Amino acid sequence: MTTIEIPTLADLDSAAARLADELRQRGATVVAFDGEMGAGKTTLISALCRTLGVADDVTASPTFAIINEYKGATPLPIYHFDLYRIESMEEALDLGLDDYFYSGSLCFLEWAERIEPLLPDDTLRVEIRVNSDGSRTLIF
């Protein structure tokens, strides 16, 4: 188990860089970010995308679109999913999630527990814990 402490928002980019290094080392492409509402899932994914070469003004929560596609420093796109509004496995399958997950592209998922049975076995789970002092801890 690995932990990364994020004492303040100013430490977010360095934490995202460490997480990006971990993703490269592990060869992880599907990453499920778990945390309560307001824990900072979208904020962390935005910082991670910046680290991976995505323009800062391009990333946003895909709450209504469900999927955002970003162009980073690699030839393959980066996909950011907000699955909060998914209500059934059938709806998820209709989106073609399997195609995304096995494309080789990075897939960052918020609210992945809604589609648990569809997640690849090698999905990396990153838990974001909100600490009593407002800091965050990443555990994976």
Write a structural description.
- The protein is built from 4 helices and 7 strands, in the order E-H-E-H-E-E-H-H-E-E-E.
- It is α/β, with parallel strands linked by helices and 140 residues long.
- It has a single domain, classed as P-loop containing nucleotide triphosphate hydrolases (Rossmann fold), CATH 3.40.50.
- The protein has a 7-stranded mixed beta sheet with strand order 1-7-6-2-5-4-3, with helices on one face.
Summarize the structure.
With 140 residues, the chain is of the alpha/beta class.
Please describe the topology of this protein:
Elements (H helix, E strand, L loop, with lengths): L2 E4 L5 H15 L3 E5 L6 H11 L15 E4 L7 E5 L6 H6 L2 H5 L4 E5 L13 E7 L5 E4 L1
Question: What kind of sheet is the major sheet?
Answer: 7 strands, mixed
Predict the CATH topology.
Answer: Rossmann fold
Taking the alpha carbons of the first and last residues, their distance comes to 6 Å
H/E element string? Answer: EHEHEEHHEEE
Percentage of residues in helical conformation:
25-40%
What's the overall geometry? globular
Low-confidence stretches: none
CATH top level assignment? Alpha Beta
CATH superfamily: P-loop containing nucleotide triphosphate hydrolases
Radius of gyration over all CA atoms, rounded: 14 Å
User: Main sheet: which strands, in order across?
Assistant: 1-7-6-2-5-4-3
The assigned structural class equals: alpha/beta
CATH architectural grouping: 3-Layer(aba) Sandwich
Give a count of the beta strands, DSSP E runs of length 2 or more: 7
Number of domains: 1
As a percent range, the share of strand residues is 15-25%
Number of helices: 4
Mean of residue pLDDT? 94
